[in-house]
Amino acid sequence: MATGDAILALLLPGPKHGYDLKRAHDEWFSGLRPLAFGQVYSTLSRLQRDELIQVAQTETADGPERTIYELTPTGRAQAQGWLAEPVDPNGPGGAPADELIRKTLAAYRLNSDPSGVVARQRAVHLRAMRALEPERGAPENLGSSVTRDHRRQHLDADLRWLELTGERIRNAGPAEGAVHLMNDASPPKEQEHG
């Protein structure tokens, strides 16, 4: 549920309506394909059906009616879990590049330990690469060798990308407007203005 997880992450800082979510997605993940409005609203419907989000309020002032969505406690926990869980490099087709990018950038924008996200992902990729080593004395065949080489090259490319991304994050400093997230499933506390 890559798009759904990204939308849940976009709601971590606070409630938003569909148009704001689409704009935030396209800004946060500017190098990826922009979301279509239809995709945003169908994903919101699915997330609401699954009780991961709920309607916070409906605004009707100055224009069309806008439904504002917020995370439920279950949705908040899923979004935070998604950020903490590395992408499986052994899935069909390897680690989905868009998910790696979204997760890393979301962690950066949310001030949710982006360096830790990169480090955990790197560790998972290194384990996957070690698991590709053939057993000593095991017979080799062309199919196994070619498949293993392909997987190893993709993992190696991901590892190089993770290294470069970690360096870019360290050099970038904090994200503008970053929100620090709690480690538990409770909503962030609002600051008092006085």
From TrEMBL:
Coiled coil (residue ranges): none
Natural source organism: Kineosporia babensis
Domain Transcription regulator PadR N-terminal residues, every copy: 7-79
InterPro entries in UniProt: Tscrpt_reg_PadR_N (IPR005149), WH-like_DNA-bd_sf (IPR036388), WH_DNA-bd_sf (IPR036390)
Source domain of life: Bacteria
Protein name, UniProt field: PadR family transcriptional regulator
